[in-house]
Amino acid sequence: MDGDSEKPPHEILSDREYQVMLMIASGKPVGTIAKELCLSVKTISSYRANILLVRLEGAVNLPVKVRSW
């Protein structure tokens, strides 16, 4: 997994996880994202957890990290 941390997120995350990551980074709450994508809040929360497991420096730093890509 160490090699993956050097790859851009679109090469590590699924397309849906990447889409959710961008929506989180834009400041949308989980409930809003779930409604817009017609998914459950639990599903979006699972995607968020997977995103954070890919070592993207946590939810607080996510918007800053995305802007730097």
Brief overview:
With 69 residues, the chain is an all-alpha fold. 67% of the residues lie in helices and 0% in strands.
Structure write-up:
- The chain has one domain (4-67): Winged helix-like DNA-binding domain superfamily/Winged helix DNA-binding domain (Arc Repressor Mutant, subunit A).
- Helices cover 67% and strands 0% of the residues.
- The chain has helices spanning 9-12, 15-25, 30-37, 41-53, 58-67.
- Helix 3 packs across helix 4 (41-53).
Key phrases:
69 residues, mainly alpha, Arc Repressor Mutant, subunit A, 0% strand, globular
In which range does the helix fraction lie?
A: 55-70%
**Tally of individual helices:** 5
Q: Architecture, CATH level 2?
A: Orthogonal Bundle
**Total domain units:** 1
Text of the CATH class:
Mainly Alpha
Largest sheet: none
State the fourth-level CATH superfamily: Winged helix-like DNA-binding domain superfamily/Winged helix DNA-binding domain
Q: Rg from C-alpha positions?
A: 11 Å
**Which residue ranges are poorly predicted, with pLDDT under 50 across at least 5 consecutive positions?**
none
Indicate the proportion of strand residues. Answer: under 5%
Layout of helices and strands, plus pairs?
Blueprint: H1 9-12, H2 15-25, H3 30-37, H4 41-53, H5 58-67
Helix pairs in contact: 2-4, 2-5, 3-4
